Amino acid sequence: MPNLSIGEYAFPGPLRDQLVAAIVAGEKTSTSSLVAEYVDSPLPKIGDREIVVDSNNQHVCITCVTNVSVVQFANVPLSHALAEGEGFRTVADWAAEHRDFWQSREFQESLPQPISITDHTEVVCVSFVVSHIF
């Protein structure tokens, strides 16, 4: 198998396991991250593949990126929020949940520098398909 990057969703624990299960089930076909997370690495691009791991660092599946866009937090489209497979019904639901996560102490400490989440914060919206399940 080629040397693929590792895809970690949220932090190890119940949320990660919920997200990984939704990916495998085909319910989660998009994800969001902050441009600020990519200080030392390039943004994802169409065709990128990664091995998704669960909370035990076990390989679960391989995903392939099908679309990437960078938008302001306030402009994330409803179609993207729905495709995250987390039960969001509105962009406001998506925004509230993501704002809480991205402003959490654990997330802020994972960044090179803390960031305030505003309507203008740049969000990386990635769509993907599962290409292999382990």
Q: How would you explain this protein's 3D organization?
A:
- InterPro entries: ASCH_domain (IPR007374), DUF984 (IPR009326), PUA-like_sf (IPR015947).
- This is ASCH domain-containing protein.
- Residues 9-131 form the ASCH domain.
- Helix content is 26%, strand content 29%.
- It has a single domain, classed as Sulfate adenylyltransferase (Roll), CATH 3.10.400.
- The protein has helices spanning 14-24, 78-83, 91-102, 105-110; strands at 5-7, 30-34, 49-53, 59-72, 122-133.
- It starts with a strand and ends with a strand.
- The radius of gyration is 14 Å and the shape is globular.
- The protein has a five-stranded mixed beta sheet.
- The chain is built from four helices and five strands, in the order βαβββαααβ.
- 18% of the residues are buried.
- The protein is α+β, with helices and mostly antiparallel strands and 134 residues long.
- What's the β-strand tally? 5
Mean pLDDT: 96
Give a short account of the largest sheet: 5 strands, mixed
Uncertain runs are none
CATH fold-type name: Sulfate adenylyltransferase
Class inferred from helices and paired strands: alpha+beta
Strand content: 25-35%
Radius of gyration: 14 Å
Q: What is the CATH first-level class name? A: Alpha Beta
* CATH homologous superfamily descriptor: Sulfate adenylyltransferase
CATH architecture: Roll
Q: Give the strand line-up of the largest sheet.
A: 1-3-4-5-2
Organism: Corynebacterium mustelae
Protein name: ASCH domain-containing protein
InterPro entries: ASCH_domain, DUF984, PUA-like_sf
